[in-house]
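Q&A log
Question type: sequence-to-structure
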Amino acid sequence: MRKIGLGILIGIVVLALSGVVAAVPNQTPGEIDKIVFIHYPQGNVPYWSPAKAPAPAPTDQDTTYKYTGIHWAISSLPVGYRINPSDAPSGAGAAVKSSFQTWEDEENSSMDFKYLGAATSVGSNLDYQNVVSWQDITSQYPGAIAVTVVWYYRGSKEIADVDTVMNSGSGFDWSVNTCTDDKCEKPANVSSYDVQNIMTHEAGHWLMLLDLYQWKTQKLTMYGYGAKGELQKRTLGLGDELGIDRIY
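Response status: OK
Response body:
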């Protein structure tokens, strides 16, 4: 975790102790809280200097993962989600579905997602609809590639609602790169963010895995920083697999 001062976490988890949010069936006011995951570009918050980079080199076989203890209730599976195509690049819907499928396909996990169709809502509202959308979030989250907001019940630590917003603001171009058997049929567009790459990372937050910032974790899907032209987060590393296996 990257810390500023003594207690503020940026780039990974912002705990928003917001008091009363909503009254929902079988819950009492004040029980719902939220966690905000903010995904920044690698260069936005420099962490490791190449001149000081330790050995050995990072690999996707690193076993590191971090978990909050918050989770989906078994009765909530499969977790339904919707996609708002507004401002999204062509082919984004299929890329988002592939991102969720990557986690669902982990052989030792019981996690299950279900696409429920298009959404009209955007943002991170507590409406009990899990939505992926594109919106200019630059003013609220300067420099962020994407933001995932998880609403959960404090007592049971069960998830109530998750929304991911991809930044469609200036400087945040998106593309869908075609890959088969982990090999891309064409080079990644280095001037834009790959939808499947970024969304596979965000889908990890839907499972409540935390961001990783150690040098050795750079090849894992849950590594906290993203980059234009990056594709490696599309496939899970060992630490990512161990994390979802522990939860589900």
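Response note: The chain has one domain: 3-247.
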